[in-house]
Write a structure and sequence with these properties.
The structure is a homodimer. The first copy, chain A, is mainly α and about 270 residues long. Chain A has a single domain, classed as Ferritin. Helix content of chain A is about 65%, strand content about 0%. Chain A contains nine helices and no strands. In chain A, helix 4 packs antiparallel against helix 5 and helix 5 crosses helix 6. The longest helix of chain A is centred in the first third of the chain and has 29 residues. The radius of gyration of chain A is 18 Å and the shape is globular. Chains A and B meet through helix 1, helix 2, helix 3, helix 5 and helix 9 of A and helix 1, helix 2, helix 3, helix 5 and helix 9 of B.
């Protein structure tokens, strides 16, 4: 990356009054994509069929590419001379802003797919809104994410229906995954200082509107799959401000070891 | 895979007199791509930069996709009702026909790239010949491989030059990799019963012609990188007839565990 020509200013369309909270919000999105892409890439070479192995790896690639683009903008907004690779490989867990949903261990195939489905159902309306309301580089990045996520959601929703309509075993595994994951979904829609500060500029969707779009998709697919949306009293929160589960630290030490072993290496 | 519509006969262009040896040869090629793709996918999420991580994952995806296509034809030629997934996930190590070069552990980044370079320099003239001389499905599969490998070879050759012209450390690591890998390259060009039986049909290149093309590429790039081609008296052989290093067994147990845990699962 250090050898490529310095990219153009990707931040010039971002209104001055939202640059700071938007930089924070880009870490939400970039870290979600990076951490989930890494979790998914743990399936590389381990899928149940060659075709599914290839499909999961393709989704992982899209997510890592998405994080690369988002963190590049975030790094420019930060203005400290850090690159997207510095953000990916040289931040510690407390500096990551992903939701806890994406850092949970990959689990079995059903857990991986159900988690991916829950994320895709969130990412599609999110990036659709950004593509339509942001301008400049962000609009382009979001439009690419919409195109990718449309495909991902079709793939994961199809699997969720297949789990539900498959064997007793596949249905049980999918329901177990839902039961475990559900309390981590609320954090995606938390209103916090960052989303409140961004409300006026309309670059990002209102969290409650986003939640409604997400619920509509998730409930419809679960209904078709004859799976039940669990009832959860309290949802997990705090990861977006750096209070992560212990799983993120393990994931990062895996993910960052090569880059950290050769800091600044030109190879 | 089991739910997709049965594919058309991909083998109909293959001349009757070479169907048996050609089926064996397709396992050479398909297993090379599958095993190397798996080794490369071990880097998923562990590349030195996001960009390189994405590049390696893309190459791994191409290789797994290539193996999927080749093993599908091989399975049809075999005519025992097995699918490409059966060949990938339900054969034991002694039934695999990949060269030992591709099964060696991934090593460090230099080892991975140098091995990939040595393979790419072999794959490009190989698939170029098949694309030009075979007909039907094989010609199409080979043409896709040529397109992909042209890009892969450009990427890996560029890295080899960068290693050689980089730091003393990067040069030493690349030379160490070459020294370790060199004795496994001869097997790619062994004349055996399979290649001899296929010589008349001209669907595959003559091994010595293939070796000459490979040598030309490898020597040119090593020369540009100021790296030395090692001298090796005896090269490793036997993997193509099922006598593998112990590394393949470990790789397969990793790769096959999910599919074997749910044999015939419809999920």
């Amino acid at each position: 990356m250090s050898e490529t020509i310095q990219a153009a200013d990707l931040t010039r369309d971002i209104p001055a009054e939202i640059r700071e909270p938007f930089g924070a919000y880009l870490l939400y999105l970039g870290d979600d994509a990076l951490v989930l892409g890494h979790r998914l890439s743990e399936w590389c070479g381990h899928g149940p069929t060659l075709e599914e192995d290839i499909a999961l790896a393709n989704i992982a690639l899209d997510l890592v590419g998405r994080s690369d683009a988002l963190l590049r903008v975030a790094a420019q907004l930060e203005g400290k001379g850090r690159s997207e690779d510095d953000l990916a490989f040289f931040r510690d867990a407390t500096e990551f802003r992903n939701a806890a949903l994406v850092e949970l261990p990959r689990g079995d195939f059903a857990f991986t797919i159900v988690r991916q489905f829950l994320y895709d159902a969130y990412a599609l309306p999110l990036y659709t809104h950004i593509a339509a309301n942001a301008t400049g580089a962000l609009s382009g990045i979001a439009a690419k994410a919409v195109k990718e996520t449309t495909y991902h959601l079709r793939h994961t929703a199809e699997w969720v229906r297949r789990f539900g309509g498959g064997t007793a075993e596949s249905k049980r595994r999918a329901q177990d995954a839902l039961d475990e994951l559900w309390r981590y979904t609320g954090e995606l829609f938390d209103e916090d200082a960052v989303t409140v500060a961004l409300a006026g500029a309309q670059w990002i969707p209102n969290p409650s509107v986003l939640r409604a779009a997400w619920s509509e998709t998730v409930e419809r697919v679960l209904d078709e799959a004859d799976l039940a949306a669990p009832a959860v009293k309290h949802h997990f929160t705090g990861a977006r401000s750096g209070r992560h589960t212990e799983h993120l630290g393990h994931l990062l030490s895996e993910m960052q070891i090569v880059a950290r072993s050769h800091p600044g290496a030109s190879w």
